[in-house]
Design brief:
The protein is an alpha+beta fold. It has a single domain, classed as Signal recognition particle alu RNA binding heterodimer, srp9/1. The protein has 1 helix and 4 strands; from the N terminus they run βαβββ. Strand 3 and strand 4 form a beta hairpin. The radius of gyration is 13 Å and the shape is globular. The termini are far apart. The relative contact order is 0.30. InterPro entries: Glyas_Bleomycin-R_OHBP_Dase, PhnB-like. This is 3-demethylubiquinone-9 3-methyltransferase.
Length: 64
């Protein structure tokens, strides 16, 4: 039987960019894997961050 993987997902309420920059500055072994912003035709407000992925120490974190 395969054991399902649990993934951390955090909601940042339109403050994702600031939050991930803070988190990655606080932990030595961390990096932003993906972070893009919505354009004029995106489903989100232009300039806001799309769902993203960061790596901190031993785990991958997804956020929106």
């Amino acid at each position: 039987m395969d054991i399902p993987k649990i993934t951390t997902f955090l909601m940042f309420n339109n403050q994702a960019e600031e939050a991930v920059k803070l988190y990655t500055s606080l932990f030595e072994d961390s990096e932003i894997i993906t972070m893009a912003k919505y354009g004029e035709n995106g489903p989100g407000d232009p300039g806001t961050v799309q769902p993203l992925n960061i790596y901190i120490k031993w785990t991958s974190i997804h956020g929106d």
